[in-house]
Write a structure and sequence with these properties.
469 residues; seven-stranded antiparallel β-sheet
Length: 469
């Protein structure tokens, strides 16, 4: 509070070399939202007392909140060097490493925090979060349950446990877990968002819409728009769509629903993301530019054959499996060359369409990350129509495509709308004949699916999204 700040400043004026007063003042300034001032105060404490682990730890918290994660990591590391049994510093270092997508390092830090302080419920929960991102769902569940045992009213742990149970396909248990989190903290936006996603997945769009209405977390309001569309709440849908357009909001899901509603209802609205997404589908042959076998095929084989990344449940997939989490975070060294190539091809994609006025190109995100996964299908395998709401541009690289038994076998199809919702208008779609070495890039607002194929060979694809930072 302001009073506490005044008291600490008074103490400093009486004793200018009082390191702890500077450190505590930094904590107060941080709580008041004055991170820059807090940083200066922590640095003054450290200058006065270089071996003050507490001050270095608090500086780490401030730097983390300022988004200067590498500096925060360094500060926590210095605190730990001075005080190796500093459980809170290990915990916050783990959170920072998780934000930096260094999941194996984050796991080690959270595990250390838990070993130093076994009753540290928050550390058990964040260890669970890291394990879930690593695709180790059974261990993640155990971590959340330990946290709940230590702190029975821990809404965060219930919500994250729900995510793990959902990824495991235990949908009823997941729903109960989200509801418990909401009962404990009724304004828990993330838990309502997660419950909304679960209800959407089970096609309970009305109930999902109720949760999204009550949440401002993540894509809640965009997903509410989709629920209204799928419920055929035409008037409410257009009210919400018009609201987004008037706000100047550029988002792939809004763009997708703008195109879809035009096909279904024949009502045209301005599309700020991309009004003609099929004009922005680009197929490239990577075979003649790179050593495809060595860079892509061998790397993918190593990941799949050695089971380096666990599988996850994927309800859209028939006769196939999908890897869990972000393959680029889980195997950063192995996929380094692949990531470089993808970024290079994305740059070429931007250059190809540089004169476009569509929001997709004109409002391209300043910073983005890549989120990727592998899909491996057996004979008869197919993927149902869907879009990637978190992406800006989506892509697929064809690691192995079996020879076709029929013309369309195994083709990749991008489309505006699902067949059953298209109204009287003919569905706009493009069927792309992909072969081993093909790469497709397309606006994330497009729905896409695959045509089933028959073969003894597996069809392997590296799918990815360009995710705005």
């Amino acid at each position: 509070s302001k009073d506490a700040e005044a008291s600490h400043r008074k103490a400093i004026s009486l004793k200018p070399d009082y390191a702890d007063a500077y450190s505590n003042l930094g904590v107060i300034l941080q709580e008041l939202g004055r991170s820059k001032d807090a940083e200066a105060s922590h640095r003054k404490a450290i200058a006065l007392e270089p071996n003050n682990a507490y001050a270095r730890y608090n500086l780490g918290i401030t730097l983390q909140e300022l988004g200067r994660l590498e500096e925060a990591e360094l500060s926590y590391g210095e605190a730990i060097a001075l005080k190796p049994d500093y459980a809170e510093a290990h915990y916050n270092l783990g959170n920072t490493l998780q934000e930096l997508s260094r999941l194996k390092d984050a796991e080690a830090s959270h595990a250390k925090a838990v070993s130093l302080k076994p009753d540290y419920a928050e550390a058990h929960t964040n260890l669970g979060n890291t394990l879930r991102e690593l695709g180790r769902l059974k261990e993640a569940e155990e971590s959340y349950r330990k946290a709940i045992k230590l702190k029975p009213n821990f809404a965060d742990a219930y919500s994250n446990l729900g995510l793990t149970l959902q990824e495991n396909g235990r949908l009823e248990d997941a729903e109960a877990s989200y509801k418990k989190a909401i009962a404990l903290t009724p304004d828990f936006a993330a838990a309502r968002y997660n419950l909304g996603l679960l209800l959407s997945e089970t096609k309970q769009y009305g109930k999902a819409a109720e949760q999204f209405k009550l949440s401002n977390f993540g894509e809640s309001k965009h997903l509410l728009l989709r629920c209204l569309y799928l419920l055929d709440e035409k008037s409410l849908f257009f009210d919400q769509l018009d609201y987004f357009i008037n706000q100047g909001e550029i988002h792939p899901l809004i763009g997708s629903l703008g195109c879809r509603s035009e096909l279904r209802y024949g009502i045209k609205r301005p599309n700020l993301f991309c009004k003609d997404p099929l004009n922005y589908v680009l197929k490239t042959d990577l075979n003649n530019q790179y050593d495809f076998e060595k860079i892509f095929v061998e790397t993918t084989r190593a990941i799949l054959d050695e089971n380096r990344v666990p599988d996850k449940r994927q309800g859209l997939l028939t006769n196939g499996r999908q890897t869990s989490g972000n393959i680029f975070d889980l195997e950063p060294d192995l996929t380094e060359e692949i990531q470089k190539i993808i970024r290079l091809e994305i740059e070429k994609y931007q250059i190809q369409f540089k004169d476009s006025e569509e929001g997709l190109i004109a409002s391209w995100p300043t910073n983005y990350s890549l989120y990727g996964w592998l899909v491996c299908m057996e004979s008869g395998g197919k993927l149902r129509p869907h879009m990637h709401e978190r992406g800006w541009v989506s892509g697929s690289i064809y690691i192995n495509v079996p020879l076709k038994a029929k013309t369309e076998s195994g083709n990749f199809v991008v489309c505006i709308e699902e067949e059953y919702l298209k109204g009287e208008n003919s569905n706009q779609e493009e069927s792309i004949d992909v072969v081993t070495g093909s790469m497709c890039l397309f606006p994330a607002s497009l729905l896409h699916y695959t045509v089933p194929f028959e073969s003894e060979e597996k069809r392997i694809v590296l799918a990815f999204d360009v995710v705005p930072a």
